[in-house]
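Below is a filled-in request sheet from our internal design queue. Each sheet records the structural input a requester submitted and the sequence that came back. We keep these sheets so that new team members can see what a complete request looks like end to end.

REQUESTER: design group, bay 2
PRIORITY: normal
MODE: inverse folding
CHAIN LENGTH: 330
BACKBONE (tokenized):
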């Protein structure tokens, strides 16, 4: 029988909080987090206290991040992850004490991450803040082994991309086709926001419940005043993060919706939409025009002809320069 794993409504939030506490770095050892989670009520299915060894294995088990591992085989499971893969990676770094850069899937600092590909290997570029001699520098680069063919500053790549957007001159055909082109993207966005709001509201309820458990544990004397303050700080930080994310969702303006309004006026400002949008809006905007992503060449310092949309655009320009634009081309 193929049974899907489910998140335990009682122990799940406590396990997730244990991961968060380890990742926060507020506690010197994982033993301190183990004691904290135990005082909050973390137990086995039979109601027993987790041993230190069991707790340590739990923190290293990728199944909580949505993976199923058997030997050297690692596949994405069908069960819902209890913690994000980013959080799981941070915890592994804390456990192994190996410093590194952990990237968020969507990062306001790097809106082109997951959009731009390396011209040589075809893999999406990664991004981060590598440290120089004195400062950190925002960069995109190819991290594929035996490739590493692209390394470009964030500001340079953003400037080149905005120049590319600036070349887009909307034609009559674009204005007519834009609602159909962005319709599926917009509906996906509406669905994503609804799902994200529901998830965040559930997380907020869990954090408030953990807050109450922490107060009760302190009243009973199960945790010290110092540990209690550290736990309260971690919970407050997580609650603020969730509330901020909810506020962003509730107040977020849809870039695609604005573009559709502009279509009615037959004046489309693509660069302005990019400048005003947040990371989600920017990603949806660029995927609307370049659904297959963009291929960047470090040697040419430009987006290669391997980009189908760009190549077709120049070919159309040669045959009909009066109808030069996207989606016909650039």
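RETURNED SEQUENCE:
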């Amino acid at each position: 029988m193929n049974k899907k794993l489910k998140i335990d409504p009682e122990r799940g939030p406590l396990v997730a909080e244990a991961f968060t506490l380890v990742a926060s770095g507020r506690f010197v050892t994982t033993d301190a987090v183990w004691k904290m989670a135990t005082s909050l009520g973390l137990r086995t299915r039979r109601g027993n206290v987790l041993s230190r060894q069991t707790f340590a294995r739990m923190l290293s088990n990728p199944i909580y991040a949505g993976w199923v591992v058997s030997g050297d085989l690692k596949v994405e499971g069908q069960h819902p992850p209890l913690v994000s893969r980013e959080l799981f990676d941070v915890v592994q770094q804390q456990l192994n004490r190996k410093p590194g850069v952990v990237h968020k899937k969507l990062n306001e600092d790097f809106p082109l991450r997951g959009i731009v590909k390396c011209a040589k290997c075809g893999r999406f570029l990664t991004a981060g803040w590598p440290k120089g001699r004195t400062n950190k520098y925002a960069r995109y680069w190819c991290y594929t082994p035996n490739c590493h063919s692209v390394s470009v500053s964030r500001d340079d790549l953003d400037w080149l991309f905005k120049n590319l957007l600036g070349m887009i001159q909307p034609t009559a055909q674009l204005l007519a086709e834009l609602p159909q082109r962005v319709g599926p993207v917009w509906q996906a966005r509406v669905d994503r926001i609804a799902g994200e709001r529901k998830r965040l509201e559930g997380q907020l309820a869990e954090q408030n419940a953990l807050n109450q458990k922490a107060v009760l544990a302190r009243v009973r004397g199960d945790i010290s005043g110092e540990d209690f303050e550290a736990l309260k700080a971690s919970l407050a930080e997580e609650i603020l993060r969730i509330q901020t994310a909810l506020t962003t969702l509730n107040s977020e303006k849809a870039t695609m919706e604005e573009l559709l309004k502009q279509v009615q006026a037959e004046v489309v400002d693509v660069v302005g939409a990019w400048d005003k949008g947040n990371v989600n809006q920017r990603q949806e905007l660029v995927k609307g025009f370049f659904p297959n992503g963009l291929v960047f060449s470090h040697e040419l310092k430009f987006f290669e002809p391997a980009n189908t949309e760009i190549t077709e655009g120049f070919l159309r320009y040669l045959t009909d320069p009066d109808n030069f634009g996207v989606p016909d081309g650039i």
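SHEET NOTES:
- Residues 98-104, 314-330 have pLDDT under 50 and may be disordered.
- Strands lie at 67-70, 73-76, 116-118, 126-128, 139-141, 151-153, 294-297, 302-303.
FILED BY: M.R.
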